[in-house]
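Hypothesis: this fold can be encoded by more than one sequence.
Test: take the structure tokens below, design a sequence, compare later.
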């Protein structure tokens, strides 16, 4: 790192390596576009989280705020890079990897709530309406794959940190990989208000929205054929298997045995 970078002084484009300059040119306005998934995530989770704020478990609060900070991180980092503040970008990047671990671990540690809800819905079906036990088992199953994909994407971003274009897109892909839980809640509430009581339409619609956003962003930044794009799309397609997975009794037993409160 140069003395100029260490002092936090923006580096002129002419002084940057060609590969870095090309990556910065591609993602110059990325921080502005990243406001869109941030707004979608917050709008989707708003009613579910803030509507019963004081009733939420501690693990829910921790996960909500770590995920929110992750989305903010993915706005701030490209801003620093686009404005030549690479020293700040690198320092915050180290902090961000710690934050990414928090997002993954808090999501996985909160999964016992799914198992508890599955057991309660079997005992008191009248309180859960259309939410049968298989729904919660299915959500738990796809969330394990989802968070595993998130971890893979973050590790790949670290491995490709010297290739700004690849590094950035692996991190951007995490937004689309973990968007389902928050957006799905919002879509479900909206459809319920319209009188749609079935659960599957909200999952299908949410999946369609996320895949459309992923492909739109990938096309805009020339990343349609990137493995991070394949991973984000693949994870969201896998989410559609939540019902057959949730109804699989062998998997239900495995989840109960592994995920204990």
């Amino acid at each position: 790192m140069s003395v100029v970078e260490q002092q936090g002084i923006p580096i002129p484009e002419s002084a940057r390596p060609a590969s870095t300059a090309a990556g910065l040119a591609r993602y110059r306005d990325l921080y502005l576009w990243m406001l869109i998934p941030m707004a979608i995530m917050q709008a989707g989770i708003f009613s579910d989280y803030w509507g019963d704020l004081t009733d939420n478990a501690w693990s829910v609060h921790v996960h909500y705020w770590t995920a929110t900070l992750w989305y903010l991180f993915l706005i701030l980092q490209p801003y620093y890079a686009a404005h030549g503040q690479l020293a700040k970008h690198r320092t915050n990047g180290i902090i961000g990897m710690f934050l990414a671990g928090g997002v993954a671990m808090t999501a996985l540690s909160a999964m016992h709530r799914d198992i508890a809800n599955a057991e309660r819905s079997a005992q008191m079906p009248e309180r859960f309406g259309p939410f049968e036990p298989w729904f919660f088992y299915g959500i738990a199953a796809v969330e394990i794959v989802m968070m595993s994909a998130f971890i893979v994407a973050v590790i790949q971003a670290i491995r490709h940190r010297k290739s700004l274009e690849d590094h950035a897109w692996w991190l951007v892909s995490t937004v689309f990989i973990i968007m389902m839980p928050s957006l799905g809640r919002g879509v479900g509430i909206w459809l319920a208000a319209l009188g749609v009581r079935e659960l599957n339409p909200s999952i299908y619609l949410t999946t369609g929205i996320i895949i459309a956003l992923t492909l739109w962003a990938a096309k805009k930044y020339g990343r349609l054929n990137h493995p991070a794009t394949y991973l984000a799309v693949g994870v969201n397609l896998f989410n559609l298997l939540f019902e057959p997975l949730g109804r699989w009794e062998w998997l239900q037993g495995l989840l109960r045995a592994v995920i204990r409160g």
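Residues 1-9 have pLDDT under 50 and may be disordered. The chain has one domain: 29-258.
Hypothesis status: open.
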